[in-house]
Write a structure and sequence with these properties.
280 residues, mainly alpha
C-alpha cells in the first residue's frame, strides 16, 4: 500500500512541478539562444538584430522570475500537499484508507524530498545552460574530474582522513537535513491542527518553538564539537595529523545530529497524526 501511496503522491505533485521544471529548462534554452544572438549582434555593431538587446533583457528577467518560482512553488506544493490532503477536508477520505499514519507521512516525505532535490538539479542545469556562453565545458572530461577527485583524496590523506568517508558523511548530512526540514514543517502542522481555531497560526507558532528547541540543542553540540572543528582549522595550518581526527569528529557529530533530528520529528508527526487528529 505504501508503494501505491508514493506513486499517487508523485502523480499528484508531478502535474504541477513537472511542468514548472520543464518550463524553466525551456526558458533557459531560449535565453541561451537569445543571448547568443545578442553577442553576435554586438559583434556586428548592433546592426544585425536591432531589437535583440531589449528581447535579451526581457528573457533574462523572465528566466530570473521562473528561477524564483521553482523554489517558491516547490515549497508551497510540499506544504499544501500535506496540509490539505491530510489535515483538511480531504483528510476524512485519506484517513479512511486501510493505511497507517506513518505510511501517509512516509509517502509524502519521499515525494517532497525527491522534488526538493529535483528542483535544485533543474536550477543547476538551467544555470549551466546559460553559462555555456562564458564557459567552455568541452575541456571538462572524465579524466579531468578524476584527477580533481584524486587531488581531493590526496589532500584529505595528508590530514589522515578518508576522502570517501568525508564525501559519504557530507551526502548523509545533505539528505538528512533536507528530510529534517520537511519533517519540521509536517510536525508543526500536525501540532497546529490539534486546535479548533487558528490552526495556521498555531502551526506557525509550533514551527518557531521547534526551531528554538533544536537551535538550543545545536548550540550545545557546537560547544562540544565546535572546538574540535576549530582545532581542525588550526592544525591544518601547522600540518598536524590531529586535524583529520577533529574533522572526522565534527562531520560525524553533525551527521548524527541530523539523523536523530529526523527520527524525533517523524515520531512527533506520527504521534499527533495517529492520536490527536482533529479535522474539525
Amino acid at each position: 500500500m505504501l508503494k501505491n501511496l508514493i506513486k499517487y503522491e508523485f502523480k499528484a505533485t508531478g502535474r504541477t512541478l513537472g511542468l514548472l521544471y520543464a518550463a524553466l529548462i525551456i526558458i533557459a534554452c531560449v535565453s541561451r539562444l537569445i543571448l547568443g544572438l545578442n553577442n553576435f549582434n554586438d559583434g556586428m555593431g548592433g546592426s544585425a538584430f536591432p531589437f535583440v538587446g531589449i528581447i535579451s533583457a526581457l528573457i533574462v528577467f523572465l528566466y530570473a522570475m521562473f528561477l524564483c518560482a521553482v523554489v517558491v512553488i516547490t515549497f508551497i506544493v510540499i506544504l499544501l500537499r500535506f496540509y490539505k490532503n491530510l489535515l483538511q477536508n480531504e483528510g476524512y477520505l485519506m484517513n479512511m484508507l486501510p493505511v497507517k499514519s506513518w505510511q501517509h507521512i512516509t509517502a509524502k516525505l519521499i515525494a517532497a524530498v525527491v522534488w526538493s532535490f529535483v528542483s535544485v538539479l533543474v536550477v543547476i542545469v538551467s544555470v549551466l545552460i546559460l553559462s555555456t556562453l562564458a564557459v567552455d565545458f568541452s575541456s571538462i572530461t572524465f579524466s579531468v574530474l578524476g584527477d580533481a577527485w584524486n587531488n581531493v583524496k590526496y589532500g584529505f590523506s595528508q590530514m589522515g582522513v578518508s576522502g570517501a568517508y568525508i564525501l559519504f558523511m557530507t551526502l548523509v548530512m545533505v539528505v538528512a537535513s533536507t528530510v529534517a526540514s520537511v519533517l519540521q514543517l509536517y510536525a508543526a502542522m500536525s501540532i497546529g491542527q490539534t486546535q479548533n481555531r487558528y490552526k495556521v497560526v498555531c502551526s506557525f507558532a509550533a514551527y518557531i518553538a521547534i526551531s528554538v528547541v533544536f537551535q538550543i540543542i545545536s548550540v550545545i553540540l557546537m560547544s562540544v564539537s565546535g572546538s574540535a572543528l576549530m582545532d581542525s582549522s588550526v592544525n591544518i595550518l601547522v600540518g598536524s595529523m590531529a586535524a583529520g581526527s577533529a574533522l572526522n569528529i565534527g562531520i560525524t557529530v553533525t551527521a548524527l545530529y541530523c539523523l536523530v533530528k529526523c527520527v524525533i520529528l517523524f515520531f512527533i508527526t506520527n504521534y499527533f497524526m495517529k492520536n490527536k487528529l482533529n479535522l474539525e
